[in-house]
Amino acid sequence: MLPGPNYIYQCPTCNNLMYHESLASGNTFNAAFYSDGKLISPDLPSYPKITKCTSCRSLFWVGHLEPVASCEPEDMESSEWASASEMQFPDLFDLLRALDEGCAPMRNEKIFIRQQILWFFNDRLRAGYPLFRDQKDQLLWNSNIDELLLLLGTANDHHQFLMAELHRYRRKFRQAVDLLNSIEDPELKGYVAKLITACEMEVSTVIRLE
Ligand SMILES: [Zn+2]
Fold first, then answer.
1. What's the CA-to-centroid distance between 51 and ligand 1, angstroms?
2. Which residues are paired to 23 by β-bridges?
């Protein structure tokens, strides 16, 4: 993994300076890919696509802004960007607020945020904790799946893959298998067989595929 420059941004609401790191090169060696679409790759770290200003807490999409500057990591401290704070990944509360405040008007933005919410819950299982802490969690999990199913369609294999996953969480294994069987993307084909086996074994939680 070879680090690239840090990219510096200004909050569109309050002009607070923030930065994210970048990679000149990375790889997916030792990466783990999960059935909910999450890739955890120690040698290919990612930066937030949506973030909360560290000063005024307003939410914004990083890709909608142009960086105001770039700076080599080792030069940051002595540069005019020394006071910039590192961008943080949104937490569950931020993601829900982004939806409430209309930060995601586009369908693909809503899908992105709702998939992040799904990952937030599944991360608990990945870390060996229960999926829900209380009944409120369970309601949120269920409503998020309902909304995602409304947003996804069968015109896109990746969407279909996620739809099958959501049906599997709901123990609708036959519907999940039907969706999996109609996926044509060769990149996903390798995972489809593993997921069909999971359906046959009535496994209804996220699984590691690679
Ligand atoms: Zn701000």
1. 10
2. 3
Dist. CA 137 → ligand 1 center (Å): 29
Distance from Cα 149 to the centre of ligand 1, integer Å: 33
Alpha-helical regions (H) of 63-206 = 92-100, 107-126, 135-151, 157-169, 173-181, 186-200
Please state, in angstroms and rounded to a whole number, the distance separating the CA atoms of residues 208 and 87: 28
* Spatial distance between the Cα atoms of 74 and 96, rounded to a whole number of angstroms: 36
Q: Domain boundaries in the chain? A: 2-86, 104-200
pTM here is 0.94
Note the pLDDT tens digit of each residue in 64-77: 999 999 999 999 99
Q: How far is the CA of 94 from the centre of ligand 1 (A)?
A: 14
